[in-house]
Amino acid sequence: MIADDSLADLAGIRHGFFTREGGVSGGVYASLNCGFGSGDAPELVAENRRLAMARLGLAAEALATVYQVHGTDVAVVAQPWAPGEAPRADALVTRIGGIALGILTADCAPVLFADEAGGVVGAAHAGWRGALAGVVEATLAAMERLGAKRERVAAAIGPAIGLASYEVGPEFRLAFLDRAEENDLFFETGAAGRFRFDLPGFVERRLAQAGVAAIGRIDADTCADADRFFSYRRTTLQGGSPYGRALAAVALAV
User: Could you tell me the residue range of the domain that residue 246 belongs to?
Assistant: First the structure.
């Protein structure tokens, strides 16, 4: 489990960006696969989630995750829902202590938020579509509706695909330039008319522009580090197969 200083220094907040290590799954899912939608045995995924929650000092049933769809909808969590009843959303917020808000990723950027003084936490799944569409801003707005103030919010960007690994075509870059010319800052020229995209850097800029002052960022490339991370892109480049999902979670202490 990896912690970020921006959240670790907050006494009332528990959080973690979990790697693929320390679980019970095998094969391509080895070993801490926390995604029920991955194709792994459900009982193994459930045990991996229990192990992750234990690292945060919480019970297995404290974890709430959503059915992620690369959008901007935010779920307000009053209590974790039953298996199979998760709403379609890409972010979660709560002001209830002891509930862990979980995001599942395999290259997309997990973002964890906390306003310790306001007693509100949030979590967002920021793939390129969601990040461009405004999932970061939607999460902050939902936190504010629960009483948070964005100038007090600390945010941490977890392990995600890095610039060196994220090669894209010209049409991808144009989608960002159509929104704002300054987005060209997050692209480097690659080979044969292609580009490399800095997803974590783009998410960090969106957080800063939204008014978040305390922003942490885990410097880890999920695609390049097969020992520690699951990666959709790495799996695709190797011919395609099922792949696991890593968990990032944040909770208010009780």
Answer: 5-160+221-252
Total tally of structural domains belonging to the chain: 1
Cα–Cα distance measured from residue 146 to residue 62, given in angstroms and rounded to the nearest whole number: 20
- Does residue 177 lie within any of the structural domains? no
From CA 71, how far away is CA 135, in angstroms rounded? 7
Q: Tell me, what CATH number does 111's domain have? A: 3.60.140.10
Burial of 88 per CB tally in 10 Å (0-12, 13-18, 19+): exposed
How far is CA 59 from each of CA 22, 63, 80, rounded to the nearest angstrom? 17, 8, 12
Q: Kindly state the DSSP code that residue 107 receives in the 8-state scheme.
A: S
Give 114's strand partners: 121, 154
Mean pLDDT, residues 139-156: 98
Cis check: omega of the bond before 38, within 30 degrees of 0: no
pLDDT one-digit tens code per residue, 91-137 = 999 999 999 999 999 999 999 999 999 999 999 999 999 999 999 99
Kindly list the strands in the beta sheet with 195-197, ordered across the sheet, starting from the edge strand earlier in the chain.
Answer: 167-168, 195-197, 187-189
As a whole number of angstroms, the distance between CA 34 and CA 124 comes to: 16
Distance between CA 205 and CA 109 in Å, rounded? 13
